[in-house]
Protein backbone atom coordinates (compact mmCIF):
# COMPACT_ATOMS: atom_id res chain seq x y z
CA UNK A 1 0.00 0.00 0.00
CA UNK A 2 1.49 3.42 -0.96
CA UNK A 3 2.30 5.75 1.91
CA UNK A 4 1.93 9.52 1.99
CA UNK A 5 3.77 11.77 4.43
CA UNK A 6 2.43 14.93 6.06
CA UNK A 7 5.26 17.45 6.31
CA UNK A 8 5.42 21.00 7.61
CA UNK A 9 6.81 23.21 10.32
CA UNK A 10 5.28 23.20 13.80
CA UNK A 11 1.93 24.88 14.58
CA UNK A 12 0.55 24.76 11.04
CA UNK A 13 -2.20 22.26 11.96
CA UNK A 14 -0.39 19.16 10.71
CA UNK A 15 -1.41 17.04 13.70
CA UNK A 16 -5.01 18.26 13.41
CA UNK A 17 -5.03 17.29 9.74
CA UNK A 18 -3.63 13.87 10.65
CA UNK A 19 -6.35 13.42 13.29
CA UNK A 20 -9.11 14.44 10.90
CA UNK A 21 -7.83 12.14 8.13
CA UNK A 22 -7.45 9.10 10.38
CA UNK A 23 -10.87 9.28 12.02
CA UNK A 24 -13.23 6.63 10.71
CA UNK A 25 -15.63 8.42 8.35
CA UNK A 26 -18.55 6.41 9.72
CA UNK A 27 -19.40 4.35 12.78
CA UNK A 28 -18.50 0.74 12.07
CA UNK A 29 -17.39 -2.43 13.73
CA UNK A 30 -13.72 -2.82 14.75
CA UNK A 31 -11.49 -3.44 11.74
CA UNK A 32 -7.81 -4.35 11.36
CA UNK A 33 -6.84 -1.01 9.80
CA UNK A 34 -6.85 1.53 12.61
CA UNK A 35 -3.48 2.83 13.84
CA UNK A 36 -0.30 1.03 12.80
CA UNK A 37 2.10 2.91 15.08
CA UNK A 38 2.02 6.33 16.80
CA UNK A 39 3.05 8.35 13.77
CA UNK A 40 1.44 6.19 11.08
CA UNK A 41 -2.31 5.99 10.72
CA UNK A 42 -4.98 4.91 8.28
CA UNK A 43 -6.92 7.50 6.32
CA UNK A 44 -9.72 6.86 3.84
CA UNK A 45 -10.06 7.74 0.18
CA UNK A 46 -13.59 8.47 -0.97
CA UNK A 47 -14.87 7.07 -4.28
CA UNK A 48 -18.21 6.21 -5.82
CA UNK A 49 -18.64 2.48 -5.25
CA UNK A 50 -19.20 0.12 -8.18
CA UNK A 51 -22.26 -1.23 -6.34
CA UNK A 52 -24.21 1.88 -7.40
CA UNK A 53 -23.58 1.36 -11.09
CA UNK A 54 -24.29 -2.36 -10.87
CA UNK A 55 -27.33 -2.03 -8.60
CA UNK A 56 -26.20 -4.58 -6.01
CA UNK A 57 -25.79 -4.73 -2.26
CA UNK A 58 -22.10 -5.27 -1.51
CA UNK A 59 -20.22 -6.89 1.38
CA UNK A 60 -16.85 -5.10 1.60
CA UNK A 61 -13.92 -6.79 3.36
CA UNK A 62 -10.88 -4.57 2.84
CA UNK A 63 -12.79 -1.28 2.78
CA UNK A 64 -16.11 0.30 3.83
CA UNK A 65 -19.19 1.13 1.76
CA UNK A 66 -21.84 3.52 3.05
CA UNK A 67 -24.71 4.73 0.87
CA UNK A 68 -22.84 3.90 -2.31
CA UNK A 69 -19.59 5.58 -1.22
CA UNK A 70 -16.57 3.30 -0.87
CA UNK A 71 -13.96 4.32 1.70
CA UNK A 72 -10.57 2.83 0.84
CA UNK A 73 -7.95 2.67 3.61
CA UNK A 74 -4.51 4.13 2.88
CA UNK A 75 -1.46 4.84 5.05
CA UNK A 76 -0.52 8.35 6.14
CA UNK A 77 2.72 9.16 7.97
CA UNK A 78 2.73 12.12 10.37
CA UNK A 79 6.31 13.41 10.39
CA UNK A 80 8.03 15.56 13.01
CA UNK A 81 7.80 19.33 12.50
CA UNK A 82 10.47 20.71 10.21
CA UNK A 83 12.69 23.73 10.85
CA UNK A 84 15.31 25.47 8.68
CA UNK A 85 18.58 23.55 8.87
CA UNK A 86 16.90 20.15 9.24
CA UNK A 87 19.24 18.57 6.66
CA UNK A 88 22.11 19.41 9.03
CA UNK A 89 20.31 17.77 11.95
CA UNK A 90 18.75 20.89 13.46
CA UNK A 91 15.64 20.24 15.54
CA UNK A 92 14.27 16.78 14.73
CA UNK A 93 15.66 17.02 11.21
CA UNK A 94 17.40 13.65 11.18
CA UNK A 95 14.29 11.88 12.47
CA UNK A 96 12.06 13.73 10.02
CA UNK A 97 14.17 13.04 6.96
CA UNK A 98 14.81 9.42 7.89
CA UNK A 99 11.08 8.71 8.30
CA UNK A 100 10.33 10.43 5.01
CA UNK A 101 12.24 7.69 3.17
CA UNK A 102 9.15 5.44 3.07
CA UNK A 103 6.83 8.08 1.61
CA UNK A 104 5.57 7.68 -1.96
CA UNK A 105 4.09 11.19 -1.93
CA UNK A 106 4.27 14.32 0.22
CA UNK A 107 1.51 16.56 1.52
CA UNK A 108 3.04 19.95 2.38
CA UNK A 109 0.95 21.39 5.21
CA UNK A 110 1.35 25.18 5.36
CA UNK A 111 -0.36 27.89 7.40
CA UNK A 112 -2.14 29.84 4.67
CA UNK A 113 -3.17 32.49 7.17
CA UNK A 114 0.46 33.46 7.79
CA UNK A 115 -0.06 33.35 11.57
CA UNK A 116 3.10 31.34 12.40
CA UNK A 117 6.65 32.52 11.72
CA UNK A 118 9.50 30.53 10.15
CA UNK A 119 10.16 28.70 13.42
CA UNK A 120 6.48 27.88 13.99
CA UNK A 121 5.92 30.56 16.66
CA UNK A 122 2.54 32.36 16.68
CA UNK A 123 2.51 35.77 14.99
CA UNK A 124 -0.22 38.16 13.77
CA UNK A 125 -2.24 36.68 10.88
CA UNK A 126 -0.89 37.82 7.54
CA UNK A 127 2.54 38.74 8.88
CA UNK A 128 4.35 35.64 7.58
CA UNK A 129 4.54 34.46 3.98
CA UNK A 130 3.44 30.79 3.57
CA UNK A 131 5.28 30.61 0.24
CA UNK A 132 8.51 30.81 2.21
CA UNK A 133 7.46 27.73 4.19
CA UNK A 134 6.93 25.69 1.02
CA UNK A 135 10.32 26.84 -0.29
CA UNK A 136 11.96 25.95 3.04
CA UNK A 137 10.55 22.42 3.06
CA UNK A 138 11.49 21.77 -0.56
CA UNK A 139 14.97 23.18 0.01
CA UNK A 140 15.61 21.06 3.11
CA UNK A 141 14.59 17.85 1.36
CA UNK A 142 16.65 18.78 -1.71
CA UNK A 143 19.77 19.55 0.36
CA UNK A 144 19.40 16.26 2.24
CA UNK A 145 19.28 14.18 -0.95
CA UNK A 146 21.92 16.35 -2.61
CA UNK A 147 24.25 15.59 0.28
CA UNK A 148 23.90 11.85 -0.38
CA UNK A 149 24.82 12.35 -4.04
CA UNK A 150 27.65 14.85 -3.59
CA UNK A 151 29.45 12.70 -1.03
CA UNK A 152 29.80 9.91 -3.61
CA UNK A 153 29.83 11.94 -6.83
CA UNK A 154 33.43 11.18 -7.84
CA UNK A 155 32.80 7.49 -7.22
CA UNK A 156 29.56 7.63 -9.22
CA UNK A 157 31.34 9.27 -12.16
CA UNK A 158 34.08 6.60 -12.17
CA UNK A 159 31.57 3.74 -12.05
CA UNK A 160 29.66 5.15 -15.04
CA UNK A 161 32.51 6.42 -17.22
CA UNK A 162 35.10 3.71 -16.48
CA UNK A 163 32.92 0.70 -15.81
CA UNK A 164 29.94 -1.26 -17.13
CA UNK A 165 27.33 0.59 -15.01
CA UNK A 166 24.94 3.24 -16.31
CA UNK A 167 23.95 6.40 -14.48
CA UNK A 168 20.31 5.27 -14.00
CA UNK A 169 21.30 2.11 -12.15
CA UNK A 170 24.03 3.77 -10.10
CA UNK A 171 21.89 6.70 -8.90
CA UNK A 172 18.85 4.52 -8.20
CA UNK A 173 21.03 2.07 -6.24
CA UNK A 174 22.47 4.93 -4.20
CA UNK A 175 18.98 6.29 -3.50
CA UNK A 176 17.05 3.00 -3.28
CA UNK A 177 16.34 3.64 0.40
CA UNK A 178 14.24 6.62 -0.72
CA UNK A 179 12.08 4.46 -3.02
CA UNK A 180 13.77 6.05 -6.05
CA UNK A 181 13.91 3.67 -9.00
CA UNK A 182 15.88 3.54 -12.25
CA UNK A 183 12.66 4.59 -14.04
CA UNK A 184 12.49 7.73 -11.90
CA UNK A 185 16.11 8.54 -12.74
CA UNK A 186 15.65 7.83 -16.45
CA UNK A 187 12.61 10.13 -16.67
CA UNK A 188 14.52 12.85 -14.79
CA UNK A 189 17.48 12.71 -17.14
CA UNK A 190 15.24 12.80 -20.20
CA UNK A 191 13.30 15.83 -18.98
CA UNK A 192 16.52 17.72 -18.15
CA UNK A 193 18.34 16.68 -21.37
CA UNK A 194 21.06 15.00 -19.31
CA UNK A 195 20.55 11.47 -20.66
CA UNK A 196 23.32 11.77 -23.27
CA UNK A 197 25.63 13.93 -21.21
CA UNK A 198 28.50 12.24 -19.35
CA UNK A 199 28.17 12.67 -15.56
CA UNK A 200 31.78 13.90 -15.39
CA UNK A 201 30.79 16.94 -17.45
CA UNK A 202 27.76 17.82 -15.33
CA UNK A 203 27.99 21.21 -13.64
CA UNK A 204 27.09 21.75 -10.00
CA UNK A 205 23.79 23.24 -11.18
CA UNK A 206 23.13 20.13 -13.29
CA UNK A 207 23.44 17.94 -10.20
CA UNK A 208 21.18 20.23 -8.16
CA UNK A 209 18.53 20.36 -10.90
CA UNK A 210 18.73 16.59 -11.24
CA UNK A 211 18.11 16.08 -7.52
CA UNK A 212 15.23 18.59 -7.44
CA UNK A 213 13.50 17.07 -10.45
CA UNK A 214 14.13 13.54 -9.15
CA UNK A 215 12.40 14.36 -5.86
CA UNK A 216 9.40 15.87 -7.65
CA UNK A 217 9.05 12.79 -9.87
CA UNK A 218 9.64 10.12 -7.22
CA UNK A 219 7.75 11.87 -4.41
CA UNK A 220 5.00 14.03 -5.94
CA UNK A 221 3.48 16.65 -3.68
CA UNK A 222 0.25 18.46 -2.87
CA UNK A 223 0.17 21.64 -0.80
CA UNK A 224 -2.50 21.64 1.92
CA UNK A 225 -3.13 25.38 2.41
CA UNK A 226 -4.42 24.96 5.95
CA UNK A 227 -6.27 27.48 8.14
CA UNK A 228 -8.08 28.65 5.02
CA UNK A 229 -10.96 29.89 7.19
CA UNK A 230 -8.90 33.00 8.11
CA UNK A 231 -9.68 36.11 6.01
CA UNK A 232 -5.95 36.51 5.30
CA UNK A 233 -5.83 33.04 3.74
CA UNK A 234 -7.76 33.91 0.58
CA UNK A 235 -4.99 36.10 -0.81
CA UNK A 236 -2.28 33.62 0.18
CA UNK A 237 -4.11 30.68 -1.40
CA UNK A 238 -4.28 32.69 -4.63
CA UNK A 239 -0.54 33.36 -4.44
CA UNK A 240 0.27 29.72 -3.70
CA UNK A 241 -1.73 28.61 -6.73
CA UNK A 242 -0.02 31.17 -8.94
CA UNK A 243 3.42 30.00 -7.78
CA UNK A 244 2.93 26.22 -7.65
CA UNK A 245 -0.05 25.60 -9.93
CA UNK A 246 -3.74 25.21 -9.17
CA UNK A 247 -3.49 21.41 -9.35
CA UNK A 248 -0.87 21.37 -6.57
CA UNK A 249 -2.70 23.52 -3.99
CA UNK A 250 -5.81 22.65 -1.97
CA UNK A 251 -7.26 25.19 0.50
CA UNK A 252 -8.36 23.36 3.61
CA UNK A 253 -9.37 23.70 7.24
CA UNK A 254 -8.30 20.68 9.26
CA UNK A 255 -9.89 22.13 12.39
CA UNK A 256 -13.27 22.49 10.68
CA UNK A 257 -13.10 18.95 9.27
CA UNK A 258 -12.19 17.46 12.64
CA UNK A 259 -15.05 19.34 14.32
CA UNK A 260 -17.54 18.11 11.69
CA UNK A 261 -16.37 14.51 11.93
CA UNK A 262 -16.59 14.53 15.72
CA UNK A 263 -20.06 16.06 15.63
CA UNK A 264 -21.17 13.44 13.09
CA UNK A 265 -19.68 10.66 15.21
CA UNK A 266 -21.80 11.84 18.15
CA UNK A 267 -24.91 11.96 15.98
CA UNK A 268 -25.26 15.73 16.29
CA UNK A 269 -25.05 16.34 12.55
CA UNK A 270 -25.20 14.37 9.33
CA UNK A 271 -21.96 14.82 7.43
CA UNK A 272 -19.96 12.79 4.95
CA UNK A 273 -16.25 13.66 4.62
CA UNK A 274 -15.74 15.62 1.45
CA UNK A 275 -19.29 16.97 1.27
CA UNK A 276 -19.99 20.66 0.71
CA UNK A 277 -22.57 20.84 3.49
CA UNK A 278 -23.94 19.18 6.61
CA UNK A 279 -27.35 18.99 8.26
CA UNK A 280 -28.20 19.22 11.93
CA UNK A 281 -29.72 15.98 13.21
CA UNK A 282 -31.23 17.34 16.42
CA UNK A 283 -30.97 21.07 17.12
CA UNK A 284 -32.15 20.51 20.70
CA UNK A 285 -28.96 18.58 21.55
CA UNK A 286 -26.68 21.43 20.48
CA UNK A 287 -25.60 24.25 22.76
CA UNK A 288 -25.58 27.84 21.55
CA UNK A 289 -21.78 27.68 21.41
CA UNK A 290 -21.87 24.56 19.24
CA UNK A 291 -24.44 26.12 16.89
CA UNK A 292 -22.27 29.21 16.54
CA UNK A 293 -19.22 27.05 15.78
CA UNK A 294 -21.11 25.15 13.07
CA UNK A 295 -22.39 28.40 11.58
CA UNK A 296 -18.83 29.72 11.46
CA UNK A 297 -17.62 26.57 9.68
CA UNK A 298 -20.42 26.92 7.17
CA UNK A 299 -19.80 30.63 6.52
CA UNK A 300 -15.99 30.74 6.59
CA UNK A 301 -15.13 27.39 5.05
CA UNK A 302 -17.88 25.51 3.24
CA UNK A 303 -19.44 28.50 1.46
CA UNK A 304 -16.04 29.98 0.58
CA UNK A 305 -14.17 26.86 -0.61
CA UNK A 306 -16.94 24.31 -1.27
CA UNK A 307 -15.65 21.87 1.37
CA UNK A 308 -13.13 21.71 4.19
CA UNK A 309 -10.61 20.48 1.59
CA UNK A 310 -9.30 17.67 3.81
CA UNK A 311 -10.79 14.82 1.78
CA UNK A 312 -9.78 16.56 -1.44
CA UNK A 313 -6.14 16.74 -0.32
CA UNK A 314 -6.03 12.98 0.21
CA UNK A 315 -7.95 12.07 -2.94
CA UNK A 316 -5.89 14.40 -5.08
CA UNK A 317 -2.66 12.89 -3.81
CA UNK A 318 -3.59 9.27 -4.43
CA UNK A 319 -5.69 9.60 -7.59
CA UNK A 320 -4.00 12.53 -9.36
CA UNK A 321 -0.40 12.62 -8.13
CA UNK A 322 0.24 8.92 -7.53
CA UNK A 323 -2.14 8.18 -10.43
CA UNK A 324 -3.83 5.17 -8.84
CA UNK A 325 -7.21 3.79 -9.85
CA UNK A 326 -9.68 1.55 -7.95
CA UNK A 327 -10.36 -1.91 -9.41
CA UNK A 328 -12.69 -4.61 -8.02
CA UNK A 329 -11.55 -8.23 -8.53
CA UNK A 330 -14.24 -10.93 -8.17
CA UNK A 331 -14.21 -14.71 -8.43
CA UNK A 332 -17.76 -15.12 -9.73
CA UNK A 333 -18.66 -12.79 -12.64
CA UNK A 334 -22.36 -13.54 -12.34
CA UNK A 335 -22.77 -13.01 -8.61
CA UNK A 336 -19.98 -10.39 -8.49
CA UNK A 337 -18.61 -12.20 -5.47
CA UNK A 338 -15.62 -13.97 -4.01
CA UNK A 339 -15.57 -17.68 -3.25
CA UNK A 340 -17.48 -17.11 -0.01
CA UNK A 341 -20.31 -15.18 -1.60
CA UNK A 342 -19.24 -11.68 -0.55
CA UNK A 343 -20.35 -9.22 -3.23
CA UNK A 344 -17.67 -6.78 -4.45
CA UNK A 345 -15.59 -7.74 -1.40
CA UNK A 346 -12.32 -5.99 -2.20
CA UNK A 347 -11.13 -2.93 -4.02
CA UNK A 348 -7.47 -2.62 -5.03
CA UNK A 349 -5.62 0.58 -5.78
CA UNK A 350 -3.42 -0.06 -8.81
CA UNK A 351 -1.26 2.25 -10.95
CA UNK A 352 -3.01 3.59 -14.02
CA UNK A 353 -1.92 1.41 -16.94
CA UNK A 354 -2.04 -1.84 -14.93
CA UNK A 355 -2.86 -4.86 -17.09
CA UNK A 356 -5.19 -7.75 -16.34
CA UNK A 357 -2.30 -10.13 -15.68
CA UNK A 358 -0.58 -7.60 -13.44
CA UNK A 359 -3.79 -7.36 -11.40
CA UNK A 360 -3.77 -11.14 -11.08
CA UNK A 361 -0.28 -10.95 -9.61
CA UNK A 362 -1.35 -8.19 -7.19
CA UNK A 363 -4.28 -10.27 -5.95
CA UNK A 364 -2.33 -13.54 -5.66
CA UNK A 365 0.76 -14.92 -7.37
CA UNK A 366 -1.02 -18.22 -8.10
CA UNK A 367 -3.60 -16.34 -10.18
CA UNK A 368 -0.83 -14.85 -12.30
CA UNK A 369 0.91 -18.21 -12.72
CA UNK A 370 -2.26 -19.90 -13.99
CA UNK A 371 -3.65 -16.87 -15.82
CA UNK A 372 -5.56 -17.62 -19.06
CA UNK A 373 -7.77 -14.56 -19.49
CA UNK A 374 -9.84 -12.07 -17.53
CA UNK A 375 -13.44 -10.95 -17.83
CA UNK A 376 -14.50 -7.31 -17.82
CA UNK A 377 -17.71 -7.92 -15.89
CA UNK A 378 -19.39 -4.61 -16.71
CA UNK A 379 -18.92 -5.00 -20.48
CA UNK A 380 -19.08 -8.79 -20.51
CA UNK A 381 -15.95 -9.19 -22.64
CA UNK A 382 -12.77 -11.23 -22.37
CA UNK A 383 -9.49 -9.50 -21.71
CA UNK A 384 -6.04 -10.74 -22.59
CA UNK A 385 -3.17 -10.49 -20.16
CA UNK A 386 -1.92 -7.26 -21.74
CA UNK A 387 -5.31 -5.52 -21.62
CA UNK A 388 -5.09 -2.26 -19.68
CA UNK A 389 -7.63 -1.83 -16.89
CA UNK A 390 -9.81 1.23 -16.35
CA UNK A 391 -11.01 3.06 -13.27
CA UNK A 392 -13.71 1.16 -11.32
CA UNK A 393 -13.43 -1.96 -13.49
CA UNK A 394 -14.88 -5.14 -12.03
CA UNK A 395 -12.58 -7.96 -13.13
CA UNK A 396 -12.86 -11.74 -12.92
CA UNK A 397 -9.58 -13.59 -13.48
CA UNK A 398 -9.87 -16.99 -15.12
CA UNK A 399 -7.07 -19.47 -14.44
CA UNK A 400 -6.27 -23.00 -15.64
CA UNK A 401 -7.19 -24.32 -12.19
CA UNK A 402 -10.62 -22.74 -12.37
CA UNK A 403 -11.31 -24.14 -15.82
CA UNK A 404 -10.32 -27.64 -14.69
CA UNK A 405 -12.87 -27.38 -11.85
CA UNK A 406 -15.55 -26.70 -14.42
State the gist of this model:
This protein is of the alpha/beta class. It has 15 helices and 15 strands. Strand 9 and strand 10 form a beta hairpin.
Topology summary:
Layout: E1 3-7, H1 14-22, E2 35-37, E3 40-48, H2 50-54, E4 64-66, E5 69-78, H3 93-99, E6 105-111, H4 130-151, H5 153-161, H6 167-174, H7 182-191, H8 204-218, E7 221-226, H9 233-244, E8 249-251, H10 254-265, E9 269-270, E10 279-280, H11 288-305, H12 310-321, E11 324-330, E12 348-351, H13 356-363, H14 365-369, E13 371-376, E14 381-383, E15 394-399, H15 400-405
Helix pairs in contact: 1-10, 4-8, 6-7, 7-8
Mean pLDDT: 89
Percentage of β-strand residues: 15-25%
As for the CATH topology of the largest domain, it is Rossmann fold
**Rg calc:** 24 Å
- CATH architectural type of the largest domain: 3-Layer(aba) Sandwich
Number of DSSP helical runs: 15
Ranges where pLDDT stays below 50 over 5 or more residues in a row are 27-36
Largest sheet: 8 strands, mixed
Structural class: alpha/beta
The N- and C-terminal alpha carbons lie at a distance of 34 Å
Question: Can you tell me the number of structural domains?
Answer: 3
Overall 3D geometry? flat
Number of strands: 15
H/E element string? Answer: EHEEHEEHEHHHHHEHEHEEHHEEHHEEEH
What is the CATH H-level superfamily of the largest domain? P-loop containing nucleotide triphosphate hydrolases
State the share of residues found in helices, binned by percent.
Answer: 25-40%
Supply the CATH class of the largest domain: Alpha Beta
Amino acid sequence: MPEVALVGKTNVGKSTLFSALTMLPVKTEPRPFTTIKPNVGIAYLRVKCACQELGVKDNPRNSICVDGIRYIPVRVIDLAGLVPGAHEGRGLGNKFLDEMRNADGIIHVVDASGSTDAEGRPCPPGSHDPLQDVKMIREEVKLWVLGMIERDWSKIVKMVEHGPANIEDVLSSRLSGLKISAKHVSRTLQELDLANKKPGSWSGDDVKMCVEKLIDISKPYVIAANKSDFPESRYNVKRLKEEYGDENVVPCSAEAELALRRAAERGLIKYTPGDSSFSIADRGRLTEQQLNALTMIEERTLKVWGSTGVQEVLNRMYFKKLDLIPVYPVADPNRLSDGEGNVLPDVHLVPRGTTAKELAHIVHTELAEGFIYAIDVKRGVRLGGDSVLNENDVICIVTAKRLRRK
